[in-house]
Amino acid sequence: IPLERIRNFSIIAHVDHGKSTLADRLLEFTGAIKKTSGQNQVLDKLQVEKERGITVKAQSASLIYIYQGEQYLLNLIDTPGHVDFSNEVSRSLSACQGVILLVDANDGVQAQTVANFYLAFGNDLLIIPVLNKIDLKNADPERVCGQLKTLFDIDPKDVLKISAKQGIGIECVLDAIIERLPPPNAVRGGKFRALVFDSWYDKYRGALSLMYIKDGEVRIGDSVASCHTKKTYEVRGLSVLRPNEESVDKLVAGQIGLVGCNMRSSQESCIGDTLHKTHEEVEPLQGFKPARPMVFAGIYPMDQSQHVHLRGAIDKLVLNDSAVTVNIDSSPALGQGWRLGFLGLLHLEVFSQRLVQEYGADPILTAPSVTYKVILKPTKKIIEDKNDTLFVNNPALFPDHLQIKECHEPMVSGTIITPDSYLGSIISLCMERRGVQKSATNIDNERVMLVYDLPLSEVVLDFHDTLKTISSGYASFDYEDMGYQFSSLVKMNILLNGTAVDELSVIMHSSRVQTMGRKLVLKLRDIIPRQMVQIAIQATVNGKVIARETLKAYRKDVTAKLYGGDVTRRMKLLAQQAAGKKKMRMVANISLPRETFIDVLKK
Ligand code: GDP
Ligand code: MG
């Protein structure tokens, strides 16, 4: 297929606006999948995606569409909509010339619509605005067109109106892709250059790389090299995704395809890398800004015998999720483990769920923390090596308050879009989270867009959930990084029977000490099961006790009170007790459920 008849595009939208459904319809319409397959969201392959109904990984598919008697190749890249996964979106965009900006005709423009629009706009991509769900009774396409006009200066005449669910207007979308988007800016005759924009691990074939062929062509048997690692490989397999893998002999400029070249280890396939032919000099393609992790947590095996298994699982999963950073870590209570960096809390949760579901791992995660900047008081040693600034993302490593000169914390600029009836409670929430309002704009006569500066630590844990709750699900939220700001921070220690458990310590703003101290000890009293001994739970800051609770001792045999009772009930309780024990971890001579470290910070 000649270049002029290739289009590479992505669908971007706020979560739940119908990207995956539209992708399904496009696949059906072009005959890539059968209409009757009855399988929803074909591109959402991961178990966690099916369970949570969200798209985590961007997926691709190549479609053949006949337009005015000519065959066109359309490469579709489905993207996730959640803020935590916006690096997946920007990676996908680097292989595209245009995007479909999908907006729910009932919900209207939402926070991620705004973020995604600017991502595409900033990458000089053509934007096809499409309103979805026009079949809904409450759909109001006129109002949403007005929002698009106000916010992005989009002409209502350019907006397509469809129902992905009922298959209305799908053909117009395909035609618009061909008519409005340019073909890829690639060179068929040139030297082979391909941008690796995704990769995953296959048990039999090693690491597979999804690449956009910018120039030239590649065939099975060719020898290719990585600009990043300089290593060379023989091309063993090439395929296109439609959406299932179909083997091909060669791939040419403009195409998106999968290459397998027997990369043994996960680290060899680098996202953002350029592949070229061995012995040919090429200029590397522009890679991606590496995603910067915002939230860090320790990860440990349930017991050290599982250390090797967990390491293997993390290695493989990181290949498929390059936004995660991994560093070796150890903790007095939990032993050898790793400190992982994530883009947000949902990212962390999805990662650990995938470790369990896809790799059978059974890890303990510690409470997440952002990276604080600590400037130390001058000491003789510091004057000598001038190293007075620490970046701390592990509360256990937070210096003693006597050593600290000042602290800084990471800030974000948050965008909230909400119906104005929830304005009051949302503004209180932002104030409670130490937010500073930057602007408030009416985007139509009943919706407002708020911009707030907020500390990242106040946002990562449950801000999004709380916002959803207080707005009955109507408000949406997105944020971007804004660097560091001076702040008054302290470390709160948690003591169990007088022993400080570093893994439970938290860094917080000094204004929070009283309320958080109470909350933490109460929460721990609820989470920790009663044991043979009484447990004193204390929260301290700079050596002063802020809050204290006592957990009473408990009798050992949970079935004792069922004496003479039903045997099956007794067996069941004993089994539960045994299972409960298995998930416990001894810390300071107390067994803690493995979720303790992460649950303690949740509301
Ligand atoms: P994504 O998060 O953007 O990928 O959204 P999904 O494709 O998973 O769709 C979210 C929900 O909206 C699903 O329950 C779909 O069935 C529903 N949906 C998608 N398109 C339409 C539509 O055109 N009309 C209606 N009524 N529902 C739709
Ligand atoms: Mg989806």
Q: Compute the gyration radius: what is it? A: 27 Å
Give a quick account of the main beta sheet: strands, pairing sense, barrel closure. 8 strands, antiparallel
Number of helices: 15
Task: Quote the average pLDDT.
Answer: 84
Q: Name the poorly predicted regions.
A: 52-58
Distance between the termini: 56 Å
> Which hetero compounds are present in the coordinates?
guanosine-5'-diphosphate, magnesium ion
Number of strands: 33
Q: Strand arrangement, largest sheet?
A: 11-10-16-7-8-15-12-13
State the secondary-structure class. alpha+beta
Helix coverage percent: 25-40%
Shape: globular
Strand content: 25-35%
Features:
single chain, 603 residues, alpha+beta, eight-stranded antiparallel sheet, six-stranded mixed sheet, 15 helices, 25% helix, globular, binds guanosine-5'-diphosphate, binds magnesium ion
In short:
It catalyses: GTP + H2O = GDP + phosphate + H(+). Helix content is about 25%, strand content about 35%. With about 600 residues, it is α+β, with helices and mostly antiparallel strands.
Can you lay out the helices and strands and say which pair or pack?
Blueprint (H helix, E strand, L loop, with lengths): L5 E8 L5 H11 L17 H6 L6 E9 L2 E9 L7 H8 L4 E7 L6 H12 L3 E7 L8 H12 L7 E2 L8 H11 L12 E10 L3 E10 L1 E3 L3 E4 L5 E3 L2 E5 L3 E4 L1 E3 L3 E8 L10 E4 L17 E7 L5 H14 L4 E7 L3 E8 L2 H15 L3 E3 L6 E5 L3 H6 L3 E4 L11 E16 L3 H10 L3 E7 L4 E9 H5 L2 H8 L5 E12 L1 E8 L2 E2 L5 E4 L3 H15 L7 E7 L2 E8 L15 H16 L1 E4 L2 E4 L2 H4 L4
Parallel strand pairs: 1-3, 1-4, 4-5, 5-6
Antiparallel strand pairs: 2-3, 7-8, 7-16, 8-15, 9-14, 10-11, 10-16, 12-13, 12-15, 17-19, 17-20, 18-19, 21-22, 21-23, 23-25, 23-26, 24-25, 27-28, 27-29, 27-30, 30-31, 32-33
Helix pairs in contact: 7-8
Magnesium ion (MG) binds next to helix 1.
